[in-house]
Amino acid sequence: MTMVRNTRQRQAVLEVLRTTRTHPDAAWIHQAVRQALPSISLGTVYRTLDALVRDGVAVTIERAGQATRYDFRRDDHHHHAVCRRCGAIFDIEVRDVPQLPRSALPGGFQVADVRLEFHGFCLACQDKPEPSGPGG
Amino acid sequence: MTMVRNTRQRQAVLEVLRTTRTHPDAAWIHQAVRQALPSISLGTVYRTLDALVRDGVAVTIERAGQATRYDFRRDDHHHHAVCRRCGAIFDIEVRDVPQLPRSALPGGFQVADVRLEFHGFCLACQDKPEPSGPGG
DNA sequence: ATTCGTGCAAAGGGTTTGCATTGTT
DNA sequence: AACAATGCAAACCCTTTGCACGAAT
User: Fold this and answer.
1) What is the spatial distance between Cα B58 and Cα B55, in angstroms, rounded to a whole number?
2) Distance (Å) from CA B67 to C1' C13?
3) What is the separation of C-alpha B53 from the centre of its chain, rounded to a whole number of angstroms?
4) What residue ranges do the domains of chain A occupy?
5) How much is the pTM?
6) Which nucleotide is nearest to B66 (CA to C1')?
7) Which nucleotides of C are covered by protein (CB under 7 A)?
């Protein structure tokens, strides 16, 4: 059967995730874990995070061309607002999501994670000029 | 001011998006557009898609390590179910999203796109074994 | 003792970007 | 004529992977 070993690396990554209230990416987590476990590699961090996501312990927030951000899944069911410009991620308390019409899901679809994401522009970024094309 | 030029490339990409009911990635769109405009480059496809997303004409579905999928935004407000294993994307009709508590958003946050995504496993993938770690 | 997990480093793949050129306005 | 958009190809960055070694069970 599946043997998930309780390694120091796994514990350390989980601990960092647990005690972090921001939404860090793998590199940030790697640096943080290094403080307790200097020799841990980035590859192991990725592998551990993958496992945590598979196990439902963590969820991801993904943006094209950006590093995946990880979020420890607490009992509160919160969701996210994501700033398109600066990438800031805000937690939003939403309790109504379970009411959403899952009946519309394709037959037999097994839901592992419901994501409600508001994408847009945070207050601080609304006045900033577009980080536009080649011209600059 | 913003000068969005109406180039052949832009029209062709838009046309492909408009007439495609699946959720293609940039490479697929590139190949499709090539049939009408053989010389178009992948870079231009990316730039055009970015612009269409900025303009709200298209939306993205993003998965870590996977190519971004694009979806032409029709008037119906549908959302997506994403299979974690095979990457299949299913459309879901959901009309209740506007009722969701935007009041919980951070002050001044300007919403450009509301995404409701059900991540999990489609029927066809539920029996498949895990594509697990290094061991195979 | 077994075998999964790790570290390392290279490879992989999607996306972006600089620059000269083309083509819209 | 002006300058945004394109094509090309290299660069970027995040993520994955092969392999030999180390460590948990």
Assistant:
1) 8
2) 9
3) 9
4) 1-73, 75-98+110-125
5) 0.89
6) C14
7) 3-10, 13-20, 23-25
φ, ψ for residue B118, nearest 5 deg: -100, 115
Give me the phi and psi of B121, to 5 degrees please: -130, 125
Structure token pair of residue B136: 């195979």
Q: Tens of pLDDT along chain B (136 residues)? A: 556 788 999 999 999 999 999 999 999 999 999 999 999 999 999 999 999 999 999 999 999 889 999 999 987 778 999 999 899 999 998 776 656 677 789 999 999 999 999 999 999 998 775 554 443 3
Chain D bases closer than 7 A to any CB of the protein: 3-10, 13-20, 23-25
DSSP label at residue A135? T
CATH 3.40.1500.20 fits B75-98+110-125, yes or no: no
Question: Measured at the alpha carbon of residue B40, what is the angle toward residues B39 and B44, in degrees to the nearest 5?
Answer: 155
**CB of B136 lies under 7 Å from some atom of strand D:** no
User: Chain B residues with CB inside 8 Å of A126's CB?
Assistant: 108, 110
- Domain range A1-73, its CATH number among 1.10.10.10, 3.30.70.270, 3.40.50.620, 3.30.930.10: 1.10.10.10
Residue A81: closest C-alpha in chain B: B105
Distance to chain A for B26, nearest Cα, Å: 12
